[in-house]
Amino acid sequence: MKLLLSIHKYDVFMFTWLLNAKIHSTLSNISRYLSKTGDGQLYVLIAAVLYFSEGLESPLLRAMLLAFLVERPLYFVLKNSFKRNRPEAALKNFRSIIKPSDKFSFPSGHTSAAFMVATLLAYFFPALLVPLYGWAAAVALSRVVLGVHFPTDTLMGGILGICTALFSLGQII
Q1: Rounded to an integer, what distance in angstroms lies between the CA atom of residue 35 and that of residue 21?
Q2: How far is CA 4 from its chain centroid?
Q3: Which Gene Ontology MF annotations are present (predicted)?
Q4: N or C end of the chain: which has fewer CB within 10 A?
């Protein structure tokens, strides 16, 4: 329990530091758009393009479908098992910039999906690895900047996404 308390204190410190940084107002405007890229429409568009261009024979499409079939239920179980309050509920006198879609914050679903898709795409298009992981990291940062996640929520979301992608690639390839 002491370890969890220490992690939470560090998390709150990092969260507060970011919110008080001079660049926060600029970041919050950009973060609204970055966060929206992780809402899911982009993933549906990628899947549709793959389906209409290659059909179900596309290993990338099959890996994406399997990854989402594994990651979404796992994310849901983790989120509802840990029941970690979002920053707005955990910190006095704090209001997030956007309204989150659910009550709990751990792990970050936006971050998990972004890192999962980035990992899958980078496997098939290695030249895009750096921009894909840069985008996924920006989605993760945007969730903290918008005040709906603590840093460790996004860290664990990234780990969940990468692990799920690697698992699905191992099953498909």
Answers
A1: 19
A2: 21
A3: undecaprenyl-diphosphatase activity
A4: N
Phi, psi of 104 (to 5 degrees): -105, 160
Task: Check: CB of residue 60 under 8 Å from CB of residue 50.
Answer: yes
Rounded CA separation 153/109 (Å):
9
| Residue 108: partners with Cβ closer than 8 Å, 6 or more residues away | 140, 143, 149, 153, 154, 156, 157
Q: Assign residue 147 a region (left: φ > 0; alpha: ψ between -120 and 50; beta: otherwise).
A: left
Domain with 90 in it: what CATH number?
A: 1.20.144.10
Which amino acid makes up residue 157? G
pLDDT in tens, 70-118: 999 999 999 999 998 888 888 888 788 888 888 899 999 999 999 999 9
The whole domain housing 37 covers: 2-172
Query: For residues 136 and 111, is the Cβ–Cβ distance under 8 A?
Result: yes
Q: What is the 3-state secondary structure (H, E, C) of 22-72?
A: CCHHHHHHHHHHHHHCCCCHHHHHHHHHHHHHHHHHCHHHHHHHHHHHHHH
Top-confidence range, 2-11, 14-23, 84-93: 84-93
